[in-house]
Amino acid sequence: MKNKILKRLKNSDDFVSGEKISQEFNMTRSGIWKYINMLKEEGYIIESIPRKGYRIISSPDILTLQEIENNLSTEFIGRNIYYYDTMDSTNKEAKRIASLEDEGTIVISEEQADGKGRLGRNWVSPKGKGIWMSIILKPDVEPVKVGAITLLGAASVFKGLKKMNIVSEIKWPNDILISEKKVCGILTEMSAELNMINHLIMGIGINVNLDEVDIPDELKEKATSIKIEQKKEIDRKLLLANILNEFEKLYIAFKDDGNVSKAIEICRENSVSIGREVRVIRGREERIGKALDINDRGELIVEFDDGKTESIFAGEVSV
Ligand code: BTN
Protein backbone atom coordinates (compact mmCIF):
# COMPACT_ATOMS: atom_id res chain seq x y z
CA MET A 1 0.00 0.00 0.00
CA LYS A 2 2.87 2.33 0.85
CA ASN A 3 4.24 1.89 -2.68
CA LYS A 4 0.81 2.44 -4.23
CA ILE A 5 0.49 5.77 -2.41
CA LEU A 6 4.02 6.68 -3.46
CA LYS A 7 3.23 5.90 -7.10
CA ARG A 8 0.03 7.97 -6.91
CA LEU A 9 1.93 10.97 -5.53
CA LYS A 10 4.77 10.54 -8.02
CA ASN A 11 2.31 10.51 -10.93
CA SER A 12 0.89 13.88 -9.99
CA ASP A 13 2.64 17.24 -10.31
CA ASP A 14 0.13 18.82 -8.00
CA PHE A 15 -1.22 18.09 -4.52
CA VAL A 16 -3.32 14.94 -4.13
CA SER A 17 -5.94 15.35 -1.48
CA GLY A 18 -6.21 12.98 1.45
CA GLU A 19 -9.84 12.44 0.49
CA LYS A 20 -8.90 11.28 -3.00
CA ILE A 21 -6.28 8.87 -1.68
CA SER A 22 -8.65 7.51 0.92
CA GLN A 23 -11.35 6.91 -1.73
CA GLU A 24 -9.00 5.43 -4.32
CA PHE A 25 -7.35 3.03 -1.89
CA ASN A 26 -10.27 2.56 0.44
CA MET A 27 -8.43 3.53 3.59
CA THR A 28 -8.78 5.90 6.52
CA ARG A 29 -7.04 9.27 6.83
CA SER A 30 -4.97 7.97 9.72
CA GLY A 31 -3.94 5.00 7.60
CA ILE A 32 -2.72 7.36 4.89
CA TRP A 33 -0.86 9.43 7.50
CA LYS A 34 0.91 6.31 8.71
CA TYR A 35 2.17 5.47 5.21
CA ILE A 36 3.16 9.08 4.51
CA ASN A 37 5.27 9.00 7.66
CA MET A 38 6.89 5.76 6.58
CA LEU A 39 7.82 7.37 3.26
CA LYS A 40 9.22 10.40 5.08
CA GLU A 41 11.36 8.07 7.17
CA GLU A 42 12.75 6.58 3.95
CA GLY A 43 13.86 10.07 2.93
CA TYR A 44 10.98 11.32 0.80
CA ILE A 45 10.26 15.00 1.36
CA ILE A 46 6.50 15.30 1.27
CA GLU A 47 4.66 18.55 1.70
CA SER A 48 1.30 18.28 3.41
CA ILE A 49 -1.08 21.21 3.52
CA PRO A 50 -4.50 21.09 5.18
CA ARG A 51 -7.35 20.98 2.65
CA LYS A 52 -4.89 20.60 -0.24
CA GLY A 53 -3.31 17.26 0.51
CA TYR A 54 0.12 15.80 -0.18
CA ARG A 55 2.82 16.54 -2.72
CA ILE A 56 6.26 14.98 -3.24
CA ILE A 57 9.01 17.57 -3.15
CA SER A 58 11.95 15.21 -3.57
CA SER A 59 12.87 11.55 -3.56
CA PRO A 60 15.82 9.99 -1.76
CA ASP A 61 18.88 8.52 -3.50
CA ILE A 62 17.89 4.89 -2.96
CA LEU A 63 17.92 1.96 -5.37
CA THR A 64 14.37 0.65 -4.95
CA LEU A 65 12.14 -0.46 -7.81
CA GLN A 66 9.91 2.56 -7.17
CA GLU A 67 12.88 4.86 -7.73
CA ILE A 68 14.19 3.24 -10.92
CA GLU A 69 11.04 2.07 -12.68
CA ASN A 70 10.47 5.27 -14.64
CA ASN A 71 13.70 4.53 -16.48
CA LEU A 72 13.40 0.76 -16.54
CA SER A 73 12.25 -0.78 -19.82
CA THR A 74 12.84 -4.44 -19.00
CA GLU A 75 10.32 -7.22 -19.00
CA PHE A 76 11.75 -9.37 -16.21
CA ILE A 77 15.25 -8.24 -15.20
CA GLY A 78 14.90 -6.09 -12.08
CA ARG A 79 11.11 -6.25 -11.94
CA ASN A 80 11.36 -7.90 -8.54
CA ILE A 81 13.91 -6.20 -6.28
CA TYR A 82 14.79 -7.18 -2.73
CA TYR A 83 16.15 -3.93 -1.36
CA TYR A 84 18.13 -3.68 1.87
CA ASP A 85 19.76 -0.90 3.77
CA THR A 86 22.55 -3.17 4.88
CA MET A 87 23.45 -6.86 4.74
CA ASP A 88 26.41 -9.24 4.63
CA SER A 89 26.63 -9.81 0.88
CA THR A 90 24.00 -9.59 -1.86
CA ASN A 91 25.51 -12.67 -3.55
CA LYS A 92 25.08 -14.64 -0.33
CA GLU A 93 21.46 -13.47 0.04
CA ALA A 94 20.71 -14.18 -3.63
CA LYS A 95 22.03 -17.72 -3.16
CA ARG A 96 19.80 -18.17 -0.10
CA ILE A 97 16.63 -17.22 -2.01
CA ALA A 98 17.52 -18.32 -5.57
CA SER A 99 15.56 -21.57 -5.63
CA LEU A 100 12.35 -19.80 -4.58
CA GLU A 101 12.54 -16.81 -6.91
CA ASP A 102 11.98 -16.24 -10.62
CA GLU A 103 14.92 -15.34 -12.76
CA GLY A 104 15.55 -11.64 -13.09
CA THR A 105 15.01 -11.13 -9.37
CA ILE A 106 17.65 -8.82 -7.90
CA VAL A 107 19.06 -8.35 -4.43
CA ILE A 108 20.41 -4.85 -3.81
CA SER A 109 21.90 -3.46 -0.64
CA GLU A 110 23.01 0.08 0.09
CA GLU A 111 25.91 -1.38 2.06
CA GLN A 112 27.61 -4.76 2.43
CA ALA A 113 29.36 -5.74 5.62
CA ASP A 114 30.97 -8.79 4.03
CA GLY A 115 31.07 -8.06 0.28
CA LYS A 116 32.78 -10.81 -1.70
CA GLY A 117 35.27 -10.29 -4.49
CA ARG A 118 36.82 -12.90 -6.73
CA LEU A 119 39.57 -15.21 -5.51
CA GLY A 120 38.28 -14.92 -1.96
CA ARG A 121 38.99 -11.21 -1.72
CA ASN A 122 36.80 -8.70 0.11
CA TRP A 123 34.77 -6.11 -1.74
CA VAL A 124 34.61 -2.69 -0.10
CA SER A 125 30.95 -1.57 -0.24
CA PRO A 126 30.31 1.70 1.62
CA LYS A 127 26.76 2.86 2.28
CA GLY A 128 24.78 4.64 -0.43
CA LYS A 129 27.81 5.16 -2.63
CA GLY A 130 27.81 2.26 -5.02
CA ILE A 131 25.64 -0.24 -6.79
CA TRP A 132 25.99 -3.54 -4.96
CA MET A 133 23.63 -6.02 -6.54
CA SER A 134 23.14 -9.66 -7.45
CA ILE A 135 20.95 -10.87 -10.30
CA ILE A 136 19.37 -14.33 -10.11
CA LEU A 137 19.42 -16.11 -13.48
CA LYS A 138 18.16 -19.50 -14.62
CA PRO A 139 19.28 -19.94 -18.21
CA ASP A 140 18.38 -23.10 -20.07
CA VAL A 141 21.90 -23.76 -21.36
CA GLU A 142 24.49 -26.43 -20.61
CA PRO A 143 26.85 -25.55 -17.74
CA VAL A 144 29.85 -25.61 -20.13
CA LYS A 145 28.42 -22.67 -22.03
CA VAL A 146 28.17 -20.51 -18.97
CA GLY A 147 31.77 -19.25 -18.85
CA ALA A 148 31.03 -16.35 -21.14
CA ILE A 149 28.02 -15.08 -19.23
CA THR A 150 30.17 -12.75 -17.16
CA LEU A 151 30.88 -10.92 -20.41
CA LEU A 152 27.18 -10.07 -20.58
CA GLY A 153 27.50 -8.28 -17.27
CA ALA A 154 30.65 -6.44 -18.32
CA ALA A 155 29.14 -5.42 -21.67
CA SER A 156 25.97 -4.12 -20.05
CA VAL A 157 27.83 -2.04 -17.44
CA PHE A 158 29.98 -0.63 -20.26
CA LYS A 159 26.88 0.24 -22.33
CA GLY A 160 25.00 1.63 -19.33
CA LEU A 161 27.90 3.99 -18.63
CA LYS A 162 28.19 4.94 -22.30
CA LYS A 163 24.54 5.95 -22.31
CA MET A 164 25.49 8.56 -19.69
CA ASN A 165 28.48 9.66 -21.79
CA ILE A 166 30.93 8.00 -19.44
CA VAL A 167 33.84 6.40 -21.25
CA SER A 168 35.14 3.13 -19.83
CA GLU A 169 36.99 0.02 -20.95
CA ILE A 170 36.46 -3.67 -20.34
CA LYS A 171 39.18 -5.78 -18.80
CA TRP A 172 38.39 -9.35 -19.80
CA PRO A 173 36.46 -11.06 -18.41
CA ASN A 174 34.81 -9.08 -15.64
CA ASP A 175 36.21 -5.71 -14.77
CA ILE A 176 35.33 -2.25 -15.98
CA LEU A 177 38.07 0.35 -15.88
CA ILE A 178 38.16 4.12 -16.18
CA SER A 179 41.55 5.68 -16.81
CA GLU A 180 43.08 2.22 -16.30
CA LYS A 181 41.65 1.87 -12.80
CA LYS A 182 38.89 -0.48 -11.72
CA VAL A 183 35.40 0.91 -11.08
CA CYS A 184 33.43 -2.33 -11.37
CA GLY A 185 33.92 -6.02 -10.71
CA ILE A 186 31.67 -8.98 -11.37
CA LEU A 187 31.47 -12.20 -9.40
CA THR A 188 29.40 -14.91 -11.08
CA GLU A 189 28.57 -17.98 -9.03
CA MET A 190 26.76 -21.07 -10.23
CA SER A 191 24.75 -23.93 -8.75
CA ALA A 192 24.56 -26.73 -11.30
CA GLU A 193 24.30 -30.45 -11.89
CA LEU A 194 26.34 -32.20 -14.58
CA ASN A 195 24.12 -31.13 -17.46
CA MET A 196 21.78 -28.57 -15.95
CA ILE A 197 22.07 -25.19 -14.30
CA ASN A 198 19.98 -24.68 -11.19
CA HIS A 199 20.79 -21.02 -10.97
CA LEU A 200 23.46 -18.44 -11.57
CA ILE A 201 24.11 -15.46 -9.36
CA MET A 202 25.71 -12.53 -11.12
CA GLY A 203 27.06 -10.15 -8.49
CA ILE A 204 27.94 -6.72 -9.81
CA GLY A 205 29.78 -4.15 -7.70
CA ILE A 206 30.15 -0.63 -9.07
CA ASN A 207 32.11 2.13 -7.34
CA VAL A 208 29.77 4.95 -8.30
CA ASN A 209 30.01 7.85 -5.85
CA LEU A 210 32.86 6.75 -3.61
CA ASP A 211 35.18 9.53 -2.51
CA GLU A 212 38.96 9.17 -2.14
CA VAL A 213 38.52 8.45 1.58
CA ASP A 214 36.28 5.48 0.82
CA ILE A 215 38.99 3.68 -1.12
CA PRO A 216 41.50 1.90 1.12
CA ASP A 217 45.08 3.09 0.62
CA GLU A 218 46.28 -0.30 -0.56
CA LEU A 219 43.72 -0.23 -3.40
CA LYS A 220 44.20 3.38 -4.50
CA GLU A 221 46.70 2.50 -7.21
CA LYS A 222 44.31 0.11 -8.92
CA ALA A 223 40.80 1.22 -7.97
CA THR A 224 38.79 4.38 -8.36
CA SER A 225 35.16 5.49 -8.58
CA ILE A 226 33.13 7.00 -11.38
CA LYS A 227 32.63 10.15 -9.30
CA ILE A 228 36.37 10.57 -8.71
CA GLU A 229 37.09 10.20 -12.43
CA GLN A 230 34.17 12.33 -13.65
CA LYS A 231 34.62 14.88 -10.88
CA LYS A 232 30.89 14.93 -10.25
CA GLU A 233 28.18 12.99 -8.45
CA ILE A 234 26.60 10.31 -10.66
CA ASP A 235 22.88 9.46 -10.78
CA ARG A 236 22.94 5.91 -9.36
CA LYS A 237 19.28 5.28 -10.12
CA LEU A 238 19.62 6.13 -13.80
CA LEU A 239 22.84 4.15 -14.11
CA LEU A 240 21.22 1.10 -12.51
CA ALA A 241 18.19 1.26 -14.83
CA ASN A 242 20.44 1.71 -17.89
CA ILE A 243 22.53 -1.31 -16.97
CA LEU A 244 19.51 -3.54 -16.36
CA ASN A 245 17.97 -2.46 -19.69
CA GLU A 246 21.18 -3.34 -21.52
CA PHE A 247 21.60 -6.55 -19.59
CA GLU A 248 18.15 -7.86 -20.48
CA LYS A 249 18.72 -7.29 -24.20
CA LEU A 250 21.94 -9.32 -24.11
CA TYR A 251 20.56 -11.96 -21.76
CA ILE A 252 17.51 -12.74 -23.91
CA ALA A 253 19.87 -13.78 -26.73
CA PHE A 254 21.85 -15.94 -24.30
CA LYS A 255 19.19 -17.62 -22.20
CA ASP A 256 17.88 -20.17 -24.68
CA ASP A 257 20.86 -21.18 -26.76
CA GLY A 258 23.90 -19.57 -25.15
CA ASN A 259 24.37 -16.89 -27.81
CA VAL A 260 26.86 -14.32 -26.50
CA SER A 261 28.01 -12.88 -29.81
CA LYS A 262 26.79 -9.32 -29.19
CA ALA A 263 28.38 -9.17 -25.72
CA ILE A 264 31.65 -10.54 -27.14
CA GLU A 265 31.61 -7.90 -29.85
CA ILE A 266 31.19 -5.15 -27.24
CA CYS A 267 33.97 -6.62 -25.09
CA ARG A 268 36.29 -7.04 -28.06
CA GLU A 269 35.77 -3.52 -29.35
CA ASN A 270 36.26 -1.93 -25.95
CA SER A 271 38.82 -4.21 -24.42
CA VAL A 272 41.73 -2.83 -22.46
CA SER A 273 43.45 -6.22 -22.63
CA ILE A 274 43.80 -6.86 -26.37
CA GLY A 275 47.24 -5.96 -27.67
CA ARG A 276 48.60 -5.64 -24.14
CA GLU A 277 50.78 -7.74 -21.94
CA VAL A 278 48.77 -9.84 -19.50
CA ARG A 279 49.64 -12.00 -16.56
CA VAL A 280 47.70 -15.23 -16.52
CA ILE A 281 47.41 -16.79 -13.11
CA ARG A 282 46.19 -20.38 -12.95
CA GLY A 283 46.33 -21.84 -9.48
CA ARG A 284 49.94 -21.33 -8.43
CA GLU A 285 51.20 -20.91 -11.96
CA GLU A 286 51.77 -17.41 -13.33
CA ARG A 287 52.69 -16.72 -16.94
CA ILE A 288 53.24 -13.58 -18.98
CA GLY A 289 51.81 -13.27 -22.46
CA LYS A 290 50.21 -10.93 -24.91
CA ALA A 291 46.44 -10.86 -25.35
CA LEU A 292 45.62 -11.14 -29.03
CA ASP A 293 41.86 -11.35 -29.22
CA ILE A 294 38.65 -12.66 -27.68
CA ASN A 295 37.33 -15.67 -29.61
CA ASP A 296 33.71 -16.49 -30.42
CA ARG A 297 33.34 -18.50 -27.23
CA GLY A 298 34.36 -15.48 -25.19
CA GLU A 299 37.82 -16.85 -24.35
CA LEU A 300 40.90 -14.64 -24.31
CA ILE A 301 43.54 -15.67 -26.88
CA VAL A 302 46.96 -15.21 -25.34
CA GLU A 303 50.35 -15.66 -26.96
CA PHE A 304 52.89 -16.64 -24.34
CA ASP A 305 56.56 -15.77 -24.30
CA ASP A 306 57.45 -19.29 -25.44
CA GLY A 307 55.53 -18.63 -28.67
CA LYS A 308 52.57 -20.86 -27.77
CA THR A 309 49.05 -19.49 -28.18
CA GLU A 310 46.26 -20.57 -25.85
CA SER A 311 42.65 -19.62 -25.30
CA ILE A 312 42.07 -18.72 -21.67
CA PHE A 313 38.68 -19.78 -20.37
CA ALA A 314 38.84 -18.23 -16.94
CA GLY A 315 41.44 -17.40 -14.36
CA GLU A 316 43.02 -14.22 -13.21
CA VAL A 317 44.39 -11.92 -15.85
CA SER A 318 46.08 -8.64 -15.02
CA VAL A 319 47.01 -5.96 -17.50
C1 BTN B 1 35.71 -8.76 -8.18
O1 BTN B 1 36.50 -9.27 -7.38
O2 BTN B 1 36.13 -8.02 -9.07
C2 BTN B 1 34.25 -9.05 -8.09
C3 BTN B 1 33.53 -8.12 -7.16
C4 BTN B 1 32.05 -8.38 -7.05
C5 BTN B 1 31.40 -7.51 -6.00
C6 BTN B 1 29.91 -7.62 -5.99
S1 BTN B 1 29.14 -6.38 -5.02
C7 BTN B 1 27.61 -7.18 -5.15
C8 BTN B 1 27.87 -8.66 -5.07
N1 BTN B 1 27.86 -9.11 -3.69
C9 BTN B 1 29.06 -9.52 -3.30
O3 BTN B 1 29.35 -9.93 -2.15
N2 BTN B 1 29.94 -9.42 -4.30
C10 BTN B 1 29.32 -8.93 -5.50
Q: How much helicity do the residues have?
A: 25-40%
Calculate the terminal CA-CA distance, rounded to whole Å.
51 Å
| Class by SSE composition | alpha+beta
Instruction: Look at the structure and give the mean pLDDT.
Output: 94
Question: What is the CATH superfamily classification of the largest domain?
Answer: Bira Bifunctional Protein, Domain 2
The CATH topology assignment of the largest domain is: BirA Bifunctional Protein, domain 2
SSE order: HHHEEHEHEEHEEEEHHHEEEEE
Which segments are poorly predicted (pLDDT under 50) over 5 or more consecutive residues? none
Largest sheet: 7 strands, mixed
Query: Radius of gyration, rounded?
Result: 22 Å
Tally the helices: 9
Strand content: 25-35%
Shape: elongated
Number of domains: 3
Hetero groups: biotin
Number of beta-strand segments: 14
CATH level-1 class of the largest domain: Alpha Beta
Strand order of the largest sheet: 3-4-5-9-8-7-6
Identify the CATH architecture of the largest domain: 2-Layer Sandwich
